[in-house]
Design a protein that fits this description.
By secondary structure, this protein is mainly alpha-helical. About 60% of the residues lie in helices and about 5% in strands. The chain has three domains: about 100 residues, Fumarase C, Chain B, domain 1, CATH 1.10.275.10; about 230 residues, Fumarase/aspartase (Central domain) (Fumarase C, Chain A, domain 2), CATH 1.20.200; about 100 residues, Fumarase/aspartase (C-terminal domain) (Ribonucleotide Reductase Protein R1, domain 1, Orthogonal Bundle), CATH 1.10.40.30. It contains 19 helices and four strands. It has a two-stranded antiparallel sheet with strand order 1-2. A hairpin with a 2-residue loop joins β1 and β2. The longest helix is centred in the N-terminal third of the chain and has 37 residues. The structure holds arginine.
Amino acid sequence: MGTDGGTSRSPGTGLSGKLWGGRFAADQAPLFERLNASLPFDYVLAPYDLAGSRAHVRMLVSIGVLSGEEGGRLLSGLDQVAAEIESGTFVWDLSDEDVHMAIEKRLIVMLGPVGGKVHTGRSRNDQVALDLQLYLRDAVDGHQERVIGLMRSLHHKASSEGSVVMPGFTHMQRAQPVLLAHHLLAYFFMLERDRRRLVRWRDSSWMPLGAGALAGVNYPLDREKVAVELGFDQVAPNAMDAVASRDAALEYLSTAAICSLTLSRLAEEMVLWCSQEFAFATLPDEWTSGSSIMPQKKNPDGAELVRAKAAGFLGRLVSLGSLLRGLPLAYNKDLQEDKVYVFSTREELDLCLEAMTAMVTAVRFDPDKMRQAAEGGYAQATDVADYLVTRGLPFRDAHRVTGQLVALLAAQKRPMAAATLDELERLSPLFDSSYYQVVDLDGVIAAKVSPGGTSPRSVAAQLDLATKMLVEADNV
Ligand code: ARG
């Protein structure tokens, strides 16, 4: 944004050069002006401010506060301001303080005194509260779309590379073999809940305009009409609540932070999987960067940054919570700072979602390496214990016997399937050659038949459900 930083006197202003300057005899200190102005960041509210003003003007005409002719002039003035902003010819002047004043001043310059009628029955307090709700709604819609995009790419990977076998981990130790599809679908369902949180955000978005500064205004406003035009389900029923509350913004930041945590876990797994130690996957050159000193390096910086950015989301959530803590009713200038957190959260979440979608699409898995890792980690041990249980051994004893078997094999770095029948029978007479089917990785996986488990059938059912969720998400 270009601001000319000028302090030129404008029509309708007092000596101080401000639209509200009637009672002021001196200019603001330049340093205070800088501290006070939200224009450097709130100019992005312009489209919402214009939409709010249009609805407000139409409503004022409908209740007879403005004549049809005045309303018409204001509406075409607002269109012209919109066109100027769109084309980049609008002059943003820091001395206007914020986007609301900048637009109103331009309207007055353009239309003459009738421009000053746009602010009838309105305060910047309810105006900014409205703009923020409209901004948040757009942000939430944009995130939803991108979350669905990421879910779609996970779904695609899960169905196309679904039969790849890998170790599932607990405590970062190889735990039990799972299908790669099972692992990827875990993120799919986490994201479905993130998406639903975004959908539910709407319940907290009430239409604040008409609250005035805090007490309501001296006109019988038709707030329902404004709410309908702007697509709100509910009018904020209390003017003080309407101008003082920012819980919808806080909830937005919290929803975004939770989603960023989901992304950071997926990003962290990308980093691990692409390490030479895991070697489960590689990211293409387009999604990695080199080292300035070590020629062999191919760093997963994209995934690392998505992982890192979760810190910022949490920080902004905590920042707004701290800002609201103990803030007395109604409007306080502190509330101007809410936008700093909200605006960067929108940008960052869109960026992270798009980047993760691209990385999930681009990542190449190495099925042989993943299977080897699953073979090498004694990940079938639970199944061997269960096998002994079906042959009559109490689970606790079966656990001990299997543990002894693992210790024996691990000492010689031999995999589970390499145990000889002799060795097995020495540990327990319940073993026989059917042991070798039990430790077969595919058999282990196929045995996890419980709903939500990793057997191909259970995973196919998960995929079906995931498909339905995507169809539903597309239809809302
Ligand atoms: N720029 C202000 C904000 O973002 C607009 C509201 C100003 N209200 C006031 N009473 N000074 O909060």
